């Protein structure tokens, strides 16, 4: 759904990322696994994935990791210049579709470069050993006053 007063805009970036779930699982099994989780995921993302167990939990985390990378690519920034993985949050809406919320420097960067009218389209998928994310960043345009 579009914000009030906005109309479809232009694509400002596209990003994709694929993660081997085995890689995420291996990190979680290491002594620094808890630190990795805190550095990469928001508390809400962890709460979502922690409701699952085993490979389903790993898939949940891997999809969000891939999504964060895809979003950073769509933004055109990557994770640098003060933009952290926890500045990008991916949670499902009421129907289960992934929704993106930006925080911190990621949000500030988009407001500086695009304005407040940005929407992310995000698709997540996983199959056996891989998690995949595809993201499109769209700059929303203000509707003309005479419409």
UniProtKB/TrEMBL annotation:
One of its GO terms (biological process) is fatty acid biosynthetic process. It is found in: Cytoplasm. Residues 13-134 form the 4'-phosphopantetheinyl transferase domain. Its EC number is 2.7.8.7. Mg(2+) binds at residues 17, 69. One of its GO terms (cellular component) is cytoplasm. Its main location: cytoplasm. It comes from the Bacteria. Belongs to the P-Pant transferase superfamily. AcpS family. Transfers the 4'-phosphopantetheine moiety from coenzyme A to a Ser of acyl-carrier-protein. This is Holo-[acyl-carrier-protein] synthase. It comes from Magnetococcus massalia (strain MO-1).
